[in-house]
Amino acid sequence: MRKLENKTAIVTGGSRGIGANLCTSLAAAGASVVVNYASNASAAAEVVSQIESAGGKALAVQADVAESADVRKLFDVAEETFGKVDILVNNAGVVHYKTIEDTTDDEFARIMRINVNGVFYGMREASQRLADGGRVISISTSAALMFLPTYGPYCASKGAIEQLSRSLAKELGPRRITSNIVSPGPTETEMFLGNNKEEKIDRMRKLAALGRLGKPEDMGPVIVFLASEDSGWITGQVIPVNGGTA
């Protein structure tokens, strides 16, 4: 079923990994999709090509979510191209695996600038410009519940996102706009696999009750559900999608 027919979605960090799958999943459900990317134009173009080849509508837009003006541009382009914005998926983010002791000022500032400021700017813009009955979905991490060493700054940024999402749910509820969090477990993405040694990857795999790492395509159906009318009575919630990891 094309549950998102005549809807427009913005997906930040939509060119690779989980974000790319979220774009194609939303498009398959009928949404027109703005595929945001920071630097990899060819990867974003490939996502757009996949969507258009399947009969969908999509547009790649370069923007640094850590810059409020760039986030405004995402909404401007979406409105100019598709007429409105119904769905915002805050997916863009960076990982950081260092102890608190070893994390520099610049490293901590970078992760907060991208992971927290970027989501805040998106939520603020959505508060002003999202259509009534719209959806805000933000990506967190199940690692926030696992108390793992070297994850402190990263999980701190995701904890901030969760609190922002809960407040936004209350603020936008009168307009029937919902705000929820999807919390993936360890997932087979370039970012996760490229930043961890095989020993750690195998350990994470074994932590899952279902005995494997997540795949980007595990997230798409959950995002489509939260973006659709089916989820209209769900807001301010954290939805774990982690195979029983945490």
Characterization of the model:
This protein is of the alpha/beta class and 246 residues long. It has a single domain, classed as Rossmann fold. It is 44% helix and 14% strand. It is built from eight helices and seven strands, in the order βαβαβαβαβαβαααβ. The protein has helices spanning 17-28, 41-53, 68-82, 105-129, 152-172, 190-194, 198-207, 220-227; strands at 8-11, 32-37, 58-62, 87-90, 135-139, 178-184, 238-241. A seven-stranded parallel β-sheet has the order 3-2-1-4-5-6-7, sandwiched between helices. Helix 1 (17-28) runs parallel beside helix 2 (41-53), helix 1 packs across helix 8 (220-227) and helix 3 (68-82) packs parallel to helix 4 (105-129).
Descriptive terms for the model:
Rossmann fold; single chain; 7 strands; globular; seven-stranded parallel β-sheet; 246 residues
Helix content: 40-55%
Biggest sheet: strands, sense, closure?
Answer: 7 strands, parallel
CATH topology: Rossmann fold
Can you tell me the number of structural domains? 1
Total number of strands: 7
CATH homolog superfamily:
NAD(P)-binding Rossmann-like Domain
With helices defined by DSSP (H or I, 4 residues minimum), what is the helix count?
Answer: 8
Name of the CATH class: Alpha Beta
State mean pLDDT (0 to 100 scale). Answer: 95
Stretches where pLDDT is under 50 for at least 5 consecutive residues are none
Give the helix/strand class.
alpha/beta
Return the string of H and E elements: EHEHEHEHEHEHHHE
